[in-house]
């Protein structure tokens, strides 16, 4: 348990700078906090009362270069992160070619040539990687300081989950059909089971090399308007395997952050059933309704009620921060949240820190 330390104004002394949470974001001020951001953030996952409400900037996402998927997706983020001018087309861990789209700042599988056209053929077509051949020792050595980065919580990510991986094999339309086609669903179950075995090995290596407190598993399940599939389909085709990923993470003493983009609020019950600890989601989801319904069962990332407008005054940012703390601090031990906005103004972040420190301390 964290020792309850009363707030002292000296904590707001700036002692350094956090590097950007993600590419394109701005650096953040580092304050003289009584404990590290990592210790405070992990308290939330442990369902202990932290000293302040954390912001996503209190963590830093890691995409280790030892995993070929991160080169393929153009997002190696570690001690030797890829610069935009270094990103090229690349093959992922299954040998599938990805094409970098500079305008979008990301990669996609080269379209029109799916590796797998029928899920029933996956054992004949898909060649699983031998991750023991990856240079884990060098990655561990090179990233020893990165994983201690500025006292923040370092969160390694597995970039392509179950449905995303199926898309990479089959293209989107065929992958979506395979989830509901009775002639293919058994094969999809078998493929997802095999993927879980692979991901379990990768999670073990992430634990061994980087010793993180949290692993992020990436699997987008929705569009801007609705999920890609029904809750029943998710429960049948995905929950059993997300549960295995959760168990793999939890059994090694870590917590499970699920990155799943889209308007997926209807699928949150499945996240909970699968053992997900934290889902930030995107702003198009009704976070307030989700907080009321499920806030005691899953940690939610919630946006401030302001936009990161460069013309926003400090007074407006401070007022919004006070509203945020007044809304979420009173019931925080039962319903913890994280500020889900890497671009929130400094005045907002600083005020959330001060107000929640006073409330919790």
Task: List the topology elements.
Blueprint lengths: L13 E5 L9 E4 L5 H9 L13 E4 L5 H5 L17 E2 L5 E5 L4 E4 L12 H4 L10 H7 L10 E6 L3 H9 L1 H7 L6 H26 L3 E5 L12 H7 L1 H12 L4 E5 L8 H7 L3 E2 L7 H8 L4 E4 L11 H15 L8 E3 L6 H15 L1
Summarize the structure.
The chain is an alpha/beta fold and 361 residues long.
Residue share in helices?
Answer: 25-40%
What is the arithmetic mean of pLDDT? 93
Which strand-content bin applies to the residues?
5-15%
Oligomer: single chain
Gross geometry: globular
Tell how many strands the DSSP assignment holds. Answer: 12
Largest sheet: 7 strands, parallel
Detailed description of the structure:
By secondary structure, this protein is an alpha/beta fold. The protein has a single domain (9-68, 110-360), classed as TIM Barrel, CATH 3.20.20. Helices cover 36% and strands 14% of the residues. The protein has 13 helices and twelve strands. The chain has helices at residues 37-45, 68-72, 122-125, 136-142, 162-170, 172-178, 185-210, 231-237, 239-250, 268-274, 287-294, 314-328, 346-360, and strands spanning 14-18, 28-31, 59-62, 90-91, 97-101, 106-109, 153-158, 214-218, 255-259, 278-279, 299-302, 337-339. The strands form three sheets. The protein has a seven-stranded parallel beta sheet. The protein has a three-stranded antiparallel beta sheet with strand order 4-5-6. A two-stranded antiparallel ribbon has the order 1-2. Strand 5 (97-101) and strand 6 (106-109) form a beta hairpin. Helix 4 crosses helix 7 and helix 5 (162-170) crosses helix 6 (172-178). The longest helix has 26 residues, at 185-210. The protein is globular, with a radius of gyration of 21 Å. The two termini are 13 Å apart.
């Amino acid at each position: 348990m964290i020792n309850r330390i009363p707030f002292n104004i000296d904590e707001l002394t700036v002692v350094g700078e956090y590097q950007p949470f993600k590419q394109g974001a701005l650096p953040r001020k580092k304050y003289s906090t009584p404990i590290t951001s990592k210790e405070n953030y992990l308290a939330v996952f442990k369902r202990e009362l932290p000293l302040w409400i954390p912001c996503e900037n209190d963590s830093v996402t890691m995409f280790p270069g030892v995993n070929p998927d991160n080169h393929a997706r153009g997002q190696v983020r570690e001690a030797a992160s890829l610069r935009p001018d270094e990103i090229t087309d690349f093959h992922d861990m299954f040998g599938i070619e990805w094409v970098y789209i500079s305008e979008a700042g990301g990669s996609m599988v080269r379209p029109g040539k799916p590796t797998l056209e029928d899920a029933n053929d996956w054992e004949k077509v898909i060649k699983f990687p031998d991750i023991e051949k990856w240079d884990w020792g060098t990655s561990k050595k090179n990233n020893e300081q990165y994983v201690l980065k500025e006292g923040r919580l370092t969160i390694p990510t597995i970039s392509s989950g179950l449905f995303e991986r199926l898309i990479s094999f089959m293209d989107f339309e065929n992958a979506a059909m395979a989830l509901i086609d009775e002639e293919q669903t058994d094969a999809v179950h078998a493929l997802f089971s095999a993927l879980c075995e692979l991901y379990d090995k990768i999670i073990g290596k992430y634990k061994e090399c980087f010793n993180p407190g949290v692993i992020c598993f990436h699997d987008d399940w929705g569009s801007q308007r609705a999920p890609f599939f029904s809750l029943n389909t998710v429960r049948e085709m995905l929950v059993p395997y997300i549960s295995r990923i959760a168990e793999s993470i939890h059994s090694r003493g870590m917590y499970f952050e699920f990155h799943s983009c889209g308007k997926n609020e209807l699928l949150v019950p499945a996240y909970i059933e699968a053992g997900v600890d934290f889902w930030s989601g995107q702003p198009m989801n009704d976070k307030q309704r989700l907080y009321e319904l499920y806030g005691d069962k899953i940690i939610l990332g919630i946006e401030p009620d302001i936009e990161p407008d460069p013309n926003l005054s400090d007074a407006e940012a401070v007022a919004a921060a006070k509203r945020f703390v007044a809304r979420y601090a009173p019931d925080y031990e039962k319903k913890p949240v994280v500020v889900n906005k890497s671009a929130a103004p400094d005045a907002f972040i600083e005020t959330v820190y001060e107000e929640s420190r006073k409330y919790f301390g």
